[in-house]
Design a protein that fits this description.
With 171 residues, the chain is of the alpha+beta class. It has one domain (36-159). It is 22% helix and 16% strand. It has four helices and seven strands; from the N terminus they run αββαββββαβα. It is globular, with a radius of gyration of 23 Å.
């Protein structure tokens, strides 16, 4: 019996040895809140001075914040910024007010639904409403005679269309 007990103990130690964490898991990247005084990475404007959803790109711990979704995507569409390691975030506008998007509801832009809404005020480029759910995006598209797009359907020409006259803010 002692031999069986020793064998069991040795086997148990082998099993426990396999429970050590191998390599450290990659750090989970989370979006950062926007603060008064944050400046757009591209144009330098004060981000919180403008309504509408904002964007941010995070790579290797560096957070780049943008005054609009169009400004962030315009930056990201440049070939030198197309790294897959860049995490892109936008506001889920189904969970916030256009005048003051809720930073508690920043979502992965690669999974988001986009709706061009030139009649709404925004910062730089085409105002884009962003949503986590297709249903919310469809409702916005219907209300603004627009259509729902995914990230891979957006290009620089779409992003650079200006907001409606009188709605575009400059500083």
């Amino acid at each position: 019996m002692p031999r069986l007990l020793r064998a069991f103990a040795a086997f148990s130690l082998l099993l426990l040895g396999g429970c050590e964490p191998a390599a450290e898991a990659p750090a989970v990247v989370t979006a950062a809140p926007f603060h008064e005084g944050d400046e757009c990475h591209v144009c330098g404007m004060a981000i919180t001075d403008f309504p509408g959803p904002k964007g941010q790109a995070i790579e290797r711990g560096e957070v780049r914040k943008f005054c609009s979704v169009a400004e962030m995507l315009g930056w990201w569409l440049q070939p030198e910024n197309q790294a897959q390691s860049v995490s892109l975030y936008v506001h889920d506008m189904a969970q916030g007010d256009w005048a003051a998007p809720d930073d508690a509801h920043l979502i992965d832009a690669r999974e988001a639904y986009f709706v061009a809404v030139p009649s709404l005020p925004g910062a730089m480029g085409q105002p884009l409403a962003t949503f986590a759910s297709e249903e919310s995006a469809q409702a916005m598209a219907k209300a603004h005679q627009s259509k729902v797009l995914r990230l891979d359907q957006l290009d620089l020409a779409t992003l650079q269309q200006p907001a409606a006259a009188g709605q575009h803010h400059h500083h």
